[in-house]
Specification:
The chain is an alpha+beta fold. The protein has one domain: RutC-like (60s Ribosomal Protein L30, Chain: A). It contains 2 helices and 6 strands, in the order βββαβαββ.
Amino acid sequence: MHKKKIILSDMAPKAIGPYSQGVVSNGHIFLSGQIPLDKNGELLDGAIEKQVELIFDNIRALLETQNCNLQNIVKLTVFLKDIQDFDAVNTKMVELLDEPYPARSLVQAAALPKNVDVEIEVIAGLNENGDR
């Protein structure tokens, strides 16, 4: 079995269950699904664009613990409470991510933790030689 390193950051919300914020294993970073919680665990309620922005702030903070950034993301999975938010999420992601874009799945979910509108999970690749 490959070794795994647990990611911890005070700049992102703590796990709200029996899981880690993220795990590094076999050259990849696996982040747990992020919902629109600030670093203190307070839920952001409001426009889907603001929620997505906060989620990516948290993802960025977790990736930075490994000297990585949003460009290291190779796969995103987006869960939406309402598929009608699809276009708004896409618009925000174009603002936040640079090309080439990561692979992505986007699905409507019947329910999400804390009844939020969106959850995003990430797989990222580690940098070679620590370079960004």
